[in-house]
Amino acid sequence: MVSLSKQRYSGNPFRRVSYISPIDEILSIAFKQTANLRMKSSKRRISRVEKISIFEREKISSLTLIISQKLERIISQFPWIENLHPFYGEICDLLGNIDEIRRILGRLGGIEKQIKELEREHVARLKETDHPKEMAEIRNQANGRMASMVKKARGDVNYLIRVIKKLKTVPDFNVDYPTVVIAGAPNVGKSSLVREISTGKPEVAEYPFTTKEIVFGHRDIGIINIQIVDTPGLLDRPFRERNLIEKQSILSIRHISDIILFMFDISKDATISLEEQFNLFEDIEREFPNVPIIRVLNKIDLLSEEEITEGKSNLKTQFQITMMDVKSLKPLIEEIENIVKSSVLQTEKFKEILKLTISDEFLQPEEEKIDYKF
């Protein structure tokens, strides 16, 4: 069995996993290539029986080698599970199951070893007979036992194919770059803010645990790249209303959140009451206890001076902004950059530069598990 690489990959570690062959395809290729083998001529004089014996051994060994290489390829492509960043560990656990993946890779390694044991066993039996028909029967028995053993991994390999498909198709996230998460009620202006304070065109993609789109952009401060993220459907309603999957997805975001920018909207356009917004703020404060939170009052162009003053006093907002006036965003941007600069100087994690991603697919029903007892 090939050892899993302990290298920390740059980018989404699961993108390193290329095509995974289904079990039926592995067997089809192995048997087809083995069937195409032709008896080789020998430089030394040997009997016809010996030639047949050598040829039958080559067929068994060829089948073993092809199957083993295919299984090794599946195993070796997967990133070293223990070295996954906690964010990717959570993502992997949500879209599949880390423990199950680990068990499956172990079972595939076990099958590979047993295939090689079968090869040794049947090659040894070939040496014990001088009858071509018996040799062919021994080879057929080896083929049948190997195929039967490998077929038991069909469900496991299908599971890996399904999970890796989810983990690979993701927009770039860099778990080691500073990340600002925008939170607040629906339609409070989160996505608009991401677009305004991000350099370049913000990317839009589906988060793996919600049908809504995630919007994220980047802002450069010298050599430092800040990621600014809006996660609709996750941080815009009370946690008590969430299912287990949503709560776990919020936990994954916790691993990459360096700053939370919470936006309030007290204008006539607000979708939920001020009390509900403040309860949501307190929920997020409890869920992200070690993350600095910046309070922002948005849509001040729709408010009177008195309403702005009252809102600032009641909500203790540090910044009052409107997307209608880009200049109002300047102090907020400066504060974000100052916090990031300070964090980069003091935090160990920012010494690593890796680009990672989030998947765009939903959980699918788990396939029936197979019990491997050989």
Topology overview:
Layout lengths: L22 H13 L12 H30 L8 H10 L2 H29 L5 H20 L2 H15 L3 E2 L5 E6 L5 H8 L1 E8 L6 E9 L2 E7 L13 H11 L4 E6 L9 H14 L5 E5 L7 H11 L3 E2 L9 H17 L9 E2 L17
Parallel strand pairs: 2-5, 2-6, 6-7, 7-8
Antiparallel strand pairs: 1-9, 3-4, 4-5
Helix pairs in contact: 1-2, 2-4, 2-5, 3-8, 4-5
Describe the protein in words:
With 374 residues, this protein is α/β, with parallel strands linked by helices. It has helices at 23-35, 48-77, 86-95, 98-126, 132-151, 154-168, 190-197, 244-254, 274-287, 305-315, 330-346, and strands at 172-173, 179-184, 199-206, 213-221, 224-230, 259-264, 293-297, 319-320, 356-357. The chain folds into 2 domains: 13-39 and 47-168, Four Helix Bundle (Hemerythrin (Met), subunit A) (Up-down Bundle), CATH 1.20.120.1190; 172-357, Rossmann fold (3-Layer(aba) Sandwich). The chain has 11 helices and 9 strands. It has a 7-stranded mixed β-sheet with strand order 3-4-5-2-6-7-8, with helices on both faces. Helix 1 (23-35) packs antiparallel against helix 2, helix 2 runs antiparallel to helix 4 (98-126) and helix 3 (86-95) runs antiparallel to helix 8 (244-254). The two termini are 17 Å apart.
